[in-house]
TrEMBL record:
Free-text function comment from the UniProt entry: Catalyzes the decarboxylation of 3-oxo-tetronate 4-phosphate to dihydroxyacetone phosphate (DHAP) and CO(2).
GO terms for MF: aldehyde-lyase activity; metal ion binding
Protein name: 3-oxo-tetronate 4-phosphate decarboxylase
Organism, as annotated: Aeromonas cavernicola
Keywords: Carbohydrate metabolism, Lyase, Metal-binding, Zinc
Lineage: Bacteria, Pseudomonadati, Pseudomonadota, Gammaproteobacteria, Aeromonadales
Coiled coil: none
Length: 214
């Protein structure tokens, strides 16, 4: 997918990816939301309360960069923090926010490193995500989530909202979903390995990987 993808193609892609995430258990009920930039500078986003498994391409919300609802069903209230990321990270073209099982479980643990929740131990975590900053807990919809994400939007491709779930960025919607899937698998492995001796990647390992594209 590229920045020149037509609006209808992006609508169809968002529905397809939402259904795939839902079918594989990454999203349940009406939780989670997706957004992506359109060629005209507006956003396409999933509607409020919509199940990612039952999206209608014609009813996806269209939103201006100022947050005005332009067409389709009403967008999720969390589109506000998507907008904060877009405004502060021009390279970001899509945002995925889920309540997927392992990352949400990880977000509920005490004693997490706020600068990087998962210490690198797999190469693709480094190449796709790099690091995972922790955003302090705020209730869903609190404007401070957007303020925190906007302030830190260029720190990486992913953030973990404490007691809530992940927010993942991408150069397009497919890339953002791929990043999310890699991050969820990394969280699953991290929880499986808790209490076990882990061979973490060295600084030289990490620096070498940063020069390699996924």
């Amino acid at each position: 997918m590229t920045a020149t993808l037509s609006e209808q193609a992006l609508r169809d892609t968002m529905v397809m990816l939402g259904a795939s995430l839902f079918a594989r258990g990454y999203a349940t009920g009406g939780a989670g939301n997706l957004s992506a930039k359109l060629p005209d500078g507006t956003l396409l986003a999933t509607p409020t309360g919509a199940s990612l498994g039952r999206l209608d391409p014609a009813r996806l919300a269209k939103v201006s960069m100022s947050g005005e609802h332009l067409a389709g069903d009403r967008p999720s209230k969390e589109v506000a923090f998507h907008l904060a990321i877009y405004h502060n990270n021009p390279a970001c073209q899509a945002v995925v926010h889920l309540h997927c099982t392992y990352l949400t479980a990880l977000s509920c643990l005490e004693g997490l490193d706020p600068t990087n929740v998962i210490r690198p131990f797999t190469p693709y975590y480094v190449m796709r995500i790099g690091q995972l900053p922790l955003i302090p807990y705020y209730r869903p919809g609190d404007v401070r989530i957007g303020e925190e994400l906007g302030r830190r939007a260029c720190e990486g491709n992913a953030f973990l909202l404490a007691n809530h779930g992940p927010v993942v960025l991408g150069k397009d919607l497919v890339d953002a979903v791929n990043n999310m899937e890699e991050l969820e698998e990394t969280a699953r492995l991290a929880l499986l390995l808790r209490g076990q001796p882990i061979r973490y990647l060295s600084e030289s390992d990490i620096n070498e990987l940063k020069r390699v594209k996924p």
